[in-house]
Every structure is written in C-alpha cells, then in structure tokens.
Write a structure and sequence with these properties.
By secondary structure, the protein is of the alpha/beta class. It contains 7 helices and 5 strands.
C-alpha cells in the first residue's frame, strides 16, 4: 500500500502533548484513518491453530517461490502478533493503532508522543531553519502553513511527524501536526 502523507490542526494550547491527544481523538472520531479489518480466521481460531495455519501457508508460498531446497522454516513471531492484534476490540485511537501493528493507520493516530527532535512514532517541532525556509518567519500564519502543505511540506521521514504553530498576528492560533506514516 505504501505510506500516506497526513495533516491535522487543532486550536493552539501550550501543552503540545494534550494537543496531540486531541488531534488523535478527533481523527478517530472523524474516521480520518486507514482501517484494516482483522483477520476473521484469527478471531475464530486459537492462537496455536492460527500460528500453525500461517506457518503452513508461508512455508507453501516459500516452496512455490524458491523450491524445496530454497525454502526455510518460517518463524511464528508475525503470526502470533497478527493473532493478538485480531483479538483487540477497537475503542479509540490507541486500540486502533495496536490492532494494526503492520500497517499503522496512515494518520496522526500513528504518532503517540512528542519529542524534541525527529523520532519514530512521535511528533517534533519543525526546526527553525525549516520555518525560515518554508515561511520566511518563525511565526507563520495558518494560510502560509496550508500553502506549504500544497507545496510539499510533509514532515520528516516515514513514521515521523512534525508540528508547527500558526499565528494570527503575534498570537499563536493553531497547531498543525503533519507527517508521513503507514505501510
């Protein structure tokens, strides 16, 4: 499927962690995420039955691709993780993310914390030099941030997020979260 670029804004508040939590909750409430349906077989089988079936299917695919001599015995780690993920009842952004360990949600929901510098699964402030480059100021307007998204501003590397505070005059007005995640 590939990764997805996303962005989300919330009204400014000094607590970036609380703002991120709000953005994640709003994305969940709005259905603004990728939802992968759980494997129905995993929900109908015991863990051991599902792991055995997945191992047999993977082994057969390996033999078909590489021949009997080139195939190897697959481990069961991914199958166990898939079985456990399928058992999760999704009730909010955290359980949604937990239920999709391989694909993510292709949204702000994939970001679970705030960091000072780019870090996987977390948002970090857009560095001053990027603010200067994209906006020519360290206090961009909401319009300038929206325009930057149209021009290709999409955060850091895959599975990383960023945020920028947009201003109304000299007052902080919005926090824009943006990034690139999902698989």
């Amino acid at each position: 499927m590939g990764a997805s670029v996303w962005n989300r804004r919330v009204p400014y508040q000094a607590d970036i962690t609380a703002a991120l939590r709000q953005a994640r909750e709003e994305a969940y409430a709005d259905g603004d995420y990728y939802l992968r349906e759980p494997d129905p077989r995993a929900r109908q089988m015991s863990e051991e039955e599902f792991v055995a079936l997945e191992a047999a299917e993977t082994r057969a695919a390996l033999v078909a691709e590489f021949g009997e001599d080139g195939a190897w015995e697959p481990g069961d780690g991914f199958a166990r993780q898939a079985w456990h993920a399928a058992q999760i009842e999704v009730t909010g952004p955290d359980t949604l993310l937990e239920s999709q360990p391989f694909s993510g949600t292709h949204s702000i929901i994939d970001m679970t914390g705030v960091a000072d510098h780019p870090d996987g699964g977390r948002v970090a402030p857009l560095p001053d030099e990027d603010l200067d480059h994209w906006f020519g100021t360290r206090q961009p307007s909401a319009e300038a941030v929206e325009e930057a998204f149209d021009d290709g501003l999409d955060g850091f590397a895959r599975w990383h997020g960023a945020y920028v505070i947009a201003y109304d005059g000299d007052r902080p007005a919005w926090i824009y979260f943006f990034g690139w995640s999902g698989d």
